[in-house]
Amino acid sequence: MARISNTALGQIPAGVWTLGFVSLLMDVSSEMIHSLLPMFMVTTLGISVAAVGLLEGLAESTALIVKVFSGVLSDYLGKRKGLAVLGYALGALSKPLFALSSSFGLVATARLLDRFGKGIRGAPRDALVADITPKHLRGAAFGLRQALDTVGAFVGPLLGVGLMLLWANDFRAVFWVATLPGWLAVALLFFGLHEPRRQHREPRSNPISRGNIRRLPGAYWWVVGLGAVFTLARFSEAFLVLRAQQDGIPTALVPLVMVAMNIIYAGCAYPFGKLSDAMSRRTLLGAGIVVLLLADLVLASSTGWMALFVGVALWGVHMGMTQGLLAAMVADTAPQDLRGTAYGVFNLASGLAMLVASTLAGVLWQVWGAPSTFYAGALFCVLSLMALSWKPAGSS
Description:
single chain; mainly alpha; 17 helices; 78% helix; globular
């Protein structure tokens, strides 16, 4: 197994830090809105919880499905930064639409445009991290980028709470403020990152041709299948927000649930990413699935704020253990010149699973109540552990 030194953090390339801070700024912008959006849709616009689940599933799956096309295009062009800039710019453009929304149609348009931008930038950005990072630091690099991203994911809701208290639950005013860090992210990426030149560039070919697809090994396809099953177990975090509201937490304070989850997520992502460079990634992923299983069981039986925060904390730990890890596993198993395509296909499978997971979660909540949603998540965790045991030869 690879070993990394105590100076691994200092060895991570500057470009990874830049991409991490770009993610941080965009997540501040996005999470200021998303931590409040489920309540805004249900209480202000009068949208049903089932419709919220459907929209969340469509939005997140849109982001994941679009990644396949941007990943393929980045491999074909041999360049990734331009697509990443375009994706972040679309995310920034979507933010004012949330503040202007007065119907399900406009808020759905804004949410889908935001996630479309995320889809465009996701695979090229992840491939950039893999391109510029030495193999023995790959887990640490993905963990660092995920940690910085997640700092934004708890700073955003924290700002949202403060502004909601300051402005007497004025959702739209908070949404307007959220536009600023989004544009700062676009500027930092455009001016602050220099894409490395590819050496020994081969003639352009179709990354999704039959010959190239055959070059993706069985170990890679195992990661794709495992990621899809695992996505069924972890539906949208919007249901954590709704669970907190159901448990009687005041509206202005509900985003603190996401703050708590993301503080833990951010604190765990880099240490677990670094750990994955020194041990079996498969073993670590299995431990993360078990943590999610425990989170679902706690949230299913939650009857007060203390149990709620225990479940949310476990959810954050599982995110820190697994999200950067899966990205590193894709990089480990895919050829360098097909990494964009590999991330795209991986996210296509996960995107379809996310649509099913969040839609099912919303329907279960609407028909049988909140516990049924989390018990279903626990069941899919068990299926994920079963899929994890079907490891092909050569997988990590």
